[in-house]
Amino acid sequence: MWIKPELRLVTTLFAVFVCSAISSAQGGWRQWDIHLRDGTTISANPLGINEKGMFTRSMSSTESGIERSRIAYLAAGRRELPGLPSEKFKEDVIVMLDGGKVIGAIKFREIKFSEGKYVQNGREQTLENVAYIIFKQTKKK
Prior knowledge:
The longest helix has 21 residues, at 5-25. The chain has one domain (29-134). Residues 16-26 have low confidence and may be disordered. The protein is elongated and about 75 Å long. Helices cover 15% and strands 34% of the residues. A hairpin with a 5-residue loop joins strand 3 and strand 4 (55-56). By secondary structure, the protein is an alpha+beta fold. The strands form 3 sheets. Strands 2-1-5-11-6-7 form a 6-stranded antiparallel beta sheet, with no helix packed on it. It has a 3-stranded antiparallel beta sheet with strand order 8-9-10, with no helix packed on it.
């Protein structure tokens, strides 16, 4: 049975559209940049936290993770972010996309596929509107 060329074209275009929509839905998480205290920047795509509480930058199960004490700050992968605060903080700081700051110790509930929850000052929040997570510098032993 022969299919008309127009029908074949429509069918092919439909298949391409469906396949591209499925592939763009996978891995659609946002990127984060991990700025280490030694000046190195690492891209996390996606950002996560493993069972040891270490930050991960990929979906690899063999990745050991990065200790929080080695990280100066995390920056959300967006084109437009507010300016990174230049002052030194004695506590952790969350900088929101609107530029607002919340100061206080941060405890992460979970981070998976670059999204997750944290608790700061007794309030649970999501990473959705976070621009930067700045960690206080721990004292060296």
